[in-house]
């Protein structure tokens, strides 16, 4: 045991000697060589902001920042999303078309039915664009997220296409997240939560949309919670229109029909009582804006 102990001690001494020599060499080297201090900021060390696209930045300033105090973050920042999930940056070519969709199909209809002061108050000040969706372990995909009435993240923007299907899908996400901001600011009637609370479930993705219709939901994701049910009902009515909603009701079960109509009426009352807005007029304006966007967007 003693020899072993001495052996260890001897090796420690050698290591200390080598370390001292190396330290002395480093000190001498540091004294005899002058390294130039970098003149450019080093990326990812804090305080670094990559250069933006002047054309995009100018458009954002003119159309969103100046009139509504809105900032758009389109350069990739993993800390703006769940950095444990794989996501991709938004392509610059899709930034302006995406935010034009937000402006034309959400902001402008709300201005028509309220005023610019309302929009300045209710529209989140930060919009984050992400190129891909955020895929979860259960196979579901996050396409958008609203945070504390101050930030909306729009994902999957790299799939942008000027088609009715994409524009409706994208605007559905925008209207969904905007509706979250509305009810986070002014709560909806408790009666909405009790239309069919027994069907709210964290395993909503195990149901088909058809099954959801028959239970009184506009789609399966609305079954996730009362809040999601509320904003999905709003978004569906605004984006797909009254005819589509009526057809959905017709194809539902008798119980589903009654629940869907009750929820529709509660949404109409919410906009009137909480925001003094005619929901039917807002619905018509959103429908017109979607049509005009598809027809005119270059």
TrEMBL record:
GO molecular function, one term: hydrolase activity
Pfam family, one: Peptidase_Mx1
Superkingdom, natural source: Bacteria
Keyword Transcription regulation: no
Gene3D superfamilies: 3.40.390.70
Alphabetized UniProt keyword annotations: Hydrolase, Lipoprotein
Family annotation (NCBIfam families): LP_HExxH_w_tonB
Entry protein name: Substrate import-associated zinc metallohydrolase lipoprotein
């Amino acid at each position: 045991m003693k020899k072993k102990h001495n052996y260890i001690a001897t090796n420690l001494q050698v290591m200390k000697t080598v370390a001292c020599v190396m330290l002395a060499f480093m000190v001498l080297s540091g004294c005899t060589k002058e390294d130039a201090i970098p003149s450019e900021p080093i990326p990812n060390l804090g305080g670094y902001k990559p250069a933006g696209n002047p054309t995009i930045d100018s458009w954002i300033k003119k159309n969103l920042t100046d009139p509504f105090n809105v900032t758009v973050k389109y350069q990739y920042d993993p800390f703006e999303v769940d950095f444990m999930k794989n996501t991709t940056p938004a392509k610059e070519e899709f930034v302006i078309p995406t935010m034009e969709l937000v402006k034309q199909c959400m902001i402008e209809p709300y201005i028509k039915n309220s005023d610019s002061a309302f929009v300045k108050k209710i529209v989140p000040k930060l919009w984050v664009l992400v190129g891909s969706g955020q895929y979860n372990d259960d196979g579901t995909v996050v396409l958008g997220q609203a945070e504390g009435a101050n930030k909306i993240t729009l994902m999957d923007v790299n799939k942008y296409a000027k088609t009715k299907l994409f524009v409706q899908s994208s605007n559905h996400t925008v209207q969904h997240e905007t509706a979250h901001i509305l009810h986070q600011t002014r709560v909806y009637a408790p009666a909405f939560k009790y239309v069919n609370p027994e069907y709210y479930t964290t395993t909503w993705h195990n149901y088909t949309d058809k099954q959801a219709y028959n239970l009184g939901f506009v789609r399966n994701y609305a079954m996730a919670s009362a809040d999601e049910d509320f904003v999905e009902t709003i978004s569906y009515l605004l984006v797909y229109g009254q005819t589509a909603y009526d057809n959905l009701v017709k194809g539902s079960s008798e119980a589903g029909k009654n629940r869907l109509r009750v929820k529709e009426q509660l949404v109409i009352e919410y906009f009137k009582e909480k925001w003094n807005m005619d929901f039917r007029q807002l619905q018509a304006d959103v429908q017109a804006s979607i049509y005009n966007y598809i027809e005119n967007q270059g």
